[in-house]
Design goal:
Elements lengths: L1 H10 L2 E7 L5 E11 L3 E6 L4 E6 L3 E6 L9
Antiparallel strand pairs: 1-2, 1-5, 2-3, 3-4
């Protein structure tokens, strides 16, 4: 998990994240990680259209978004 977050910060990768909120609800979010700390990280959340702080322990899954170039020949 931390390795994926660190790589996202270094290379600017976008991630799909399943997150457990404080109220117990589970949400799917698309984020760009900006900073990473020991217990939390700052990211731009495309769902909320703002910068948010997330607890690393509440992240259920992370998947990098891979955009492929398509060329028309």
């Amino acid at each position: 998990m931390r390795k994926t977050l660190g790589r996202s910060v270094r290379y600017g990768e976008m991630l799909d994240m399943m997150y457990l909120a404080k109220d117990g609800s589970i949400t799917k979010r698309r984020v760009n990680v900006l900073q990473m700390g020991d217990k939390s990280f700052r990211a731009y959340c495309h769902m909320r259209k703002s910068k948010r702080t997330f607890a690393i322990d509440n992240v259920l899954a992370l998947v990098p978004i891979i955009e492929r170039e398509r060329a028309v020949i």
